[in-house]
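Q: Hi! New to this. If I give you a protein sequence and the SMILES for 2-acetamido-2-deoxy-beta-D-glucopyranose, can you show me the bound structure?
A: Yes, paste them in.
Q: Okay, here:
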Amino acid sequence: MNRSCLCSILVTTALICSAYFIGNAYIDEELKEKLLRWEITDKMHNVTNKIQNTTDEMHNVTDKIQKVADKMQNATSPTCENLNKPLGSEALPQGIIVKTSNLETQHLWDYRQDKKGNPNRAMSLLAMAVGIKQKELVNKVIQKFPSRDFVVMLFHYDGVVEDWKQYPWNEHAIHVSVMNQTKWWFAKRFLHPDIVAEYEYIFLWDEDLGVAHFNPQRYLSIVKEEGLEISQPALDTTKTKVHYPITARHNNLKVHRRMYKDKGSVRCDDHSTDPPCVGWVEMMAPVFSRSAWRCSWYMIQNDLIHAWGLDKQLGYCAQGDRKINVGVVDAEYIFHYGLTTLGVVKTASSSSGNETKPKSRTLVKWIIEQE
Ligand SMILES: *[C@@H]1O[C@H](CO)[C@@H](O)[C@H](O)[C@H]1NC(C)=O
Ligand SMILES: *[C@@H]1O[C@H](CO)[C@@H](O)[C@H](O)[C@H]1NC(C)=O
Ligand SMILES: *[C@@H]1O[C@H](CO)[C@@H](O)[C@H](O)[C@H]1NC(C)=O
Ligand SMILES: *[C@@H]1O[C@H](CO)[C@@H](O)[C@H](O)[C@H]1NC(C)=O
Ligand SMILES: *[C@@H]1O[C@H](CO)[C@@H](O)[C@H](O)[C@H]1NC(C)=O
Ligand SMILES: *[C@@H]1O[C@H](CO)[C@@H](O)[C@H](O)[C@H]1NC(C)=O
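A: Thanks. Here is the predicted structure of the protein with 2-acetamido-2-deoxy-beta-D-glucopyranose bound:
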């Protein structure tokens, strides 16, 4: 082997070695870079993870603070929590209290049929004390009140319930039968404000009314437009005797709220502020708004028979100024036949023929002994 050969081998080896080292260094560089990237990604993951965990923790802490605040709120104001709960229901959680009811029937097997028509529709209630002898008149009244807008409730004071079956509306009506009781007795017992809270207006009517010129929907639209909380349809003066001028129909008016009188002990003019001039209606066909009824119900005494005198006190329940919120609707009017039956408010009111103002504004006991 000569020197040149050895030399070339050395050079080759050196070349190979350097190539190897250079390549190796290059690869190492790449590898390191890769590793670095991984590490960074890993760290970022860890950081993201930590941020996530921190956010979670903060949420948990916020939740905890909220819970403590709630508990403190509940603990410091137990009365506040129970403020809107009816008496006796304090132990119940707010969510399961049902405060009011209605008179609607429930379908036993088909829930979809429960609500007639539009479930959001505001329903009103027609309640009448009736006897079978007046069934023709009553039928005419009820036919005017379509079932999609009105629930009908009949108080049978003669115990006869079966004989109404001939009328198509009969099976949808609510029947309550108690012997020899008047409209006010029934109303106090069966029209508690919480039971009838869903009804926008309550018609508490006698059975001896003629409705040929009366349309309840038009009536209610007038009542809403005029803001009447307590009202009655005007009485036709041509065929029926009108006991109180305030309820007599004015042919040319839509509604009126006062009467005028320039003779006798009581004068009524534009400046009068009290019944009998203004602020009341009779008790044969009153129509109450929901809130007016809630108030009026409390005025009905349990032994009240004919509501004598109640009419003049209605102003308390006018939800504001009785001179404005109590009125008579002339555009939709009725006939009053003045029959003497139990279902009918006796028109011989305490103020009949005696229109002096009540001596005291306090609520009096209205039952008249000589009934
Ligand atoms: C990421 O977190 C894991 C476990 O929490 C840990 O073992 C790893 O070393 C962390 N990585 C870096 C780059 O900090
Ligand atoms: C984040 O929380 C999870 C579970 O709660 C845990 O496994 C993980 O190690 C946590 N990560 C960090 C960076 O604290
Ligand atoms: C937050 O609360 C939930 C449930 O209370 C729990 O599973 C989770 O581990 C909590 N997270 C932290 C970061 O404390
Ligand atoms: C506080 O009272 C409210 C309303 O009654 C109830 O929903 C809530 O669960 C109560 N909170 C606590 C922490 O007891
Ligand atoms: C109801 O009144 C009638 C007539 O006044 C009377 O004959 C009847 O006995 C009374 N019934 C009851 C249950 O009071
Ligand atoms: C009206 O009632 C008052 C007091 O009760 C009485 O003094 C007066 O005589 C009565 N008037 C009439 C017309 O009955």
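A: The CA atoms of residues 234 and 249 lie 5 Å apart. Let me know if you'd like me to explain how to read the tokens.
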